[in-house]
Design brief:
Layout: H1 2-20, H2 24-35, H3 42-58, H4 62-75, H5 80-91, H6 98-111, H7 116-128, H8 132-145, H9 150-162, H10 166-179, H11 184-201
């Protein structure tokens, strides 16, 4: 048992170092080997599956990440971060159930309500599901926790604009700029907001219900030309004039012309 414990600790240390260095492919091989061991200590098994879940989330392999997170919650059922990661794996998977993600976000915010990222992602999911009022309330909580976070403010402004509350979004941005007058990030948010409002205020061109067919232009008919006797000495042509023949160069002298000596 001691040999197995020493081997598991060595593999966990190796996988941890590779993961922290960003060498996720090699780290996943080591941690997968460790996860296959039987009767692992709870602390080693928890960290091993948590790191594997993080690697699969980075690769957008949400189903594999959920499998490891389910095992992790078996060891730590009251950890808010694991519920948040599981909700994220459901939220970003188009084939997953979004209502399950809502339940896990709620558990994460109940266990740790001081994390603005939990509230921001939770609010965005509620907006996607059409639960606008609840989504805006969650985004407002995120801004209340970190009022000087540009990401949280941007998500709240986006949610307010989607709910046709441009005046409230403008007030949020003005308050953020007042608190951070020298921060370029808030200045950019304000500029982008003004540009979007100006773009939306411009009315789009009117769409025609049916295609319009323009009539053919008729060729103008010239009036009757009077006959020649009425206009003596003049001829009017109705067709195009012919192209004149090229002028040949005239010789400078003629051979039969006699020139003075």
């Amino acid at each position: 048992m001691s040999k197995t414990l020493n081997l598991s600790e060595c593999l966990l240390t190796m996988g941890r170092d590779l993961h922290e260095l960003g060498r996720n492919h090699e780290a996943s091989k080591v941690l997968d080997r460790l996860a296959g061991f039987r009767e692992l200590p709870a602390t080693i098994a928890e960290e091993c599956h948590a790191r594997l879940a993080d690697i699969h989330l980075g690769r957008k392999q949400y189903r594999k990440a959920r499998r490891h997170l389910t095992i992790v919650l078996f060891y730590r059922p009251s950890n808010a971060r694991y519920y948040y990661l599981l909700a994220t794996a459901l939220h970003h998977d188009p084939k997953a159930d979004s209502e399950r993600a809502v339940r896990y976000y709620e558990q994460a915010t109940q266990l740790d309500g001081d994390q603005p990222r939990y509230w921001s992602d939770f609010g965005r999911l509620l907006l996607q599901l059409g639960r606008t009022e609840e989504g805006i309330a969650a985004l407002q909580k995120a801004v209340a926790i970190t009022p000087d976070d540009p990401a949280a403010v941007a998500k709240l402004v986006e949610g307010l604009c989607l709910n046709d509350q441009a005046a409230e979004a403008r007030d949020v941005l003005r308050a953020a700029r007042f608190r951070n007058p020298k921060d370029r990030r808030f200045r950019k948010l304000w500029t982008d907001f003004q540009f979007q409002q100006l773009h939306d205020s411009q009315s789009p061109p009117a769409k025609l219900d049916e295609p319009v067919i323009l009539p053919f232009v008729r060729r103008a008919v010239m009036p009757d030309v009077p006959e020649a006797p009425t206009l003596p000495g003049r001829r009017i042509r109705l067709d195009r004039g012919s192209v004149s023949r090229p002028h040949l160069p005239r010789p400078a002298w003629k051979p039969d012309t006699k020139h003075a000596p």
